[in-house]
Amino acid sequence: MNDYNACLDTAIDRLHEEGRYRTFIDIERRRGQFPHAEWKRPDGTVQDVTVWCGNDYLGMGQHPVVLEAMHEAIDATGAGSGGTRNISGTTVYHKRLEAELADLHGKEAALLFTSAYIANDATLSTLPKLFPGLIIISDELNHASMIEGIRHGNCEKHIFRHNDLAHLRAILSGLPADAPKVIAFESIYSMDGDFGPIEAICDLADEFNALTYIDEVHAVGMYGPRGAGVAERDGLMDRIDIFNGTLGKAYGVMGGYIAASAKMVDAIRSYAPGFIFTTSLPPAVAAGAAASIRFLKENQDLRDEHQAQAAALKLRLKGLGLPIIDHGSHIVPVHVGNPMKCKMISDQLLENHGIYVQPINFPTVPRGTERLRFTPSPVHGPSEIDELVNAMDGLWSHCALNRADMAG
Ligand SMILES: *Cc1c(COP(=O)(O)O)cnc(C)c1O
Fold this sequence. Notes:
By secondary structure, this protein is an alpha/beta fold. It contains 14 helices and 16 strands. It is 42% helix and 16% strand.
């Protein structure tokens, strides 16, 4: 007889022993008061907290333009879409959103998925069906959704060291010249906040006749004059074959997509099970996302404020001598380098200061590089920043963590 419960206990105990068991903090954001939220403590009491680790980077999740579009769509059309895209689930809202996305990235077409995770998984696992003998070359720090997609695609794959162009070139040089190839990478890697070398990778793709697949999840809405991402900022959009993005982070709603040529989108649409066999997004979600994209195409102010907030927070924390990982993006990782202390600082920030930042430990990041990862936004005001900086100052001393030489 199998003891199924004992197996489950073993699996969960393994995580406890490795200090990797995840606990979720129960919070409820308050519309109009972001970044404030209510934390429902395990004992049932409620405490006001400031969220410092959200991915709603620009506060669009409470923006009146987005909410209005969602309310309107719900009142007009009801709750769910009522079907898969193929069978009664394609609405004018989905079509409008896809047109908005294609225009955003300067591509002929776009294709919606229920999340960017699914978009990565479904697209990357489908490409080998379209290009027989496909070889995927993937950055080692690519997001789990890309790794899973590549795995599910069951084709030949090669991993290049993170952002290492020489290694990428060496791999490409060793592959058959006539084999179809895709280079898969990200524009911003969210744990360090560093940028992928987009132009140099596109140059290599040209040289070796490969397609380029870029995940701009942590850049869309936030970079480029219309918020299309880092490729737009750097004038490289036409050199990317397939864009992947999310509607759940800077756009503040939910959903994911790819943008590419009409032919590419038609083929993925026709062959990807992760697109075909699932209920399409609720029309109200599509309406909210489209409103958010449209708004951010025309509002550079919010992007400027966002960058200014990130720069200000980095400056303040650096001023205390805290080891900030700074690659010039909007993400503010503070290196702790010890899983216990990382968790302890996070616990105390929450308990004693009402500051919510999730500790980032192994396996999300390598052991010894445990960190706190702050995501400042235009809705974090001066008082919230002051509170965070003061709390970090105190806890850093309390935990006897090193500071940089202040004169250095
Ligand atoms: C969050 C994330 C995704 C998944 O996006 P969702 O829309 O939340 O599924 C994909 N890629 C990267 C790099 C991410 O950080």
